[in-house]
Design goal:
CATH superfamily of one domain in chain A: DsrEFH-like
CATH class of one domain in chain A: Alpha Beta
Distance between the termini of chain B: 45 Å
Oligomer: heterodimer
Strand order of the largest sheet of chain A: 4-3-2-1-5
Largest sheet of chain B: none
Order of helices and strands of chain A: HEHEHHHEHEHE
Helix content of chain A: 25-40%
Number of helices of chain B: 5
Shape of chain B: globular
CATH architecture of one domain in chain A: 3-Layer(aba) Sandwich
Chain lengths: 178, 104
């Protein structure tokens, strides 16, 4: 025991070497949140992957499902309460006043428009046009009583978690969870 | 009559990623040479897009996939089909313009 303790800590665990220098080929993005900024992060990354010539699949689950409903896709909000990075000087009580969240979300969307960022439905159309595939989570869809017809036309299907993992099959795939 | 020599790819300056350093070195012949390296046979439709990209670049407009989709020349699906495997980057390379710095 003492022998182990006396040994200098110079030996570090071997760093795994990517011998075949495997290239990134496909990404699967799981979007579990329905906040404007989280959904945009997912959309930008999926579209960005397609732009780089990678395969991109998206799986929307839980509150992320909001982003692919016909009703709410283009009306997502950002959280003004419970979001310390949002206007740090703003007292939580004020940020929670009725209408404040809607106003903040409107302002944020306006800033995005300035950057020529498409709205959610158009972004999803762009991703589909680029060969990306969009899926909804079966369990969450059942929980929120959502049917295929409630979802955007670009949604390819409502699938199980097992089906989702099948989407990630193949070498060079990375899964991103938001 | 003054003739402008059409430069071959081997004669022009490109950066490490293969993008032309001088937009003025570009010619349709050069475009065909760059395209063949990307396994693309250029058609008239390709050239319409390439010329549009060059015009916009000259105007200083930042390029994005969305802008091309709204150009009226091609929709996004057609754009991906014309330049498979990273359309904005590949088309920019063939069009002899700098690598696009767009996230959308």
């Amino acid at each position: 025991m003492q022998d182990v303790l006396d040994r200098p800590v110079t030996q570090v665990a071997e760093v795994p070497v990517n011998k075949d220098k495997g290239k990134l080929k496909k990404i699967l993005i799981i979007c579990s949140k329905g906040k404007l900024e989280d959904v945009y992060a997912a959309l930008v990354m999926a579209n960005g992957a397609l732009m780089e010539g990678l395969e991109a699949k998206m799986f929307f689950t839980f509150f992320g499902l909001e982003a692919i409903t016909k009703k709410h896709a283009d009306h997502l909000h950002t959280a003004t309460v419970g979001n310390p990075a949002f206007m740090p000087a703003m007292p939580t009580m004020v940020a929670g006043l009725p209408g404040f969240e809607a106003f903040a979300s409107y302002m944020m969307q306006k800033e995005m428009d300035k950057l020529d960022m498409p709205h959610v439905t158009e972004f999803i159309q762009m991703i589909e046009a680029g060969g990306g595939e969009i899926y909804a989570c079966k369990l969450a869809a059942e929980m929120f009583h959502l049917k295929k017809e409630d979802l955007l036309d670009e949604v390819k299907g409502i699938i199980t978690v097992g089906d989702m993992y099948a989407l990630a099959e193949g070498e060079g795939t990375q899964i991103i969870f938001i | 009559m003054e003739t402008i020599a059409i430069k071959k790819l081997a004669e022009v300056e490109v950066n490490a990623e293969g993008y032309l350093k001088n937009m003025s070195d570009w010619s349709s012949e050069l475009a065909k040479e760059v395209a063949s390296k990307e396994n693309i046979q250029l058609t008239d439709k390709h050239f319409e897009v390439l010329n549009w990209l060059r015009t916009k670049q000259a105007e200083g407009v930042p390029l994005s996939i969305r802008k091309i989709g709204n150009s009226g020349l091609v929709d996004i699906k057609q754009f991906y089909a014309l330049f498979p495997g990273g359309p904005l980057k590949i088309s920019s390379k063939i069009a002899g313009i700098s690598k696009p710095a767009s996230c959308i």
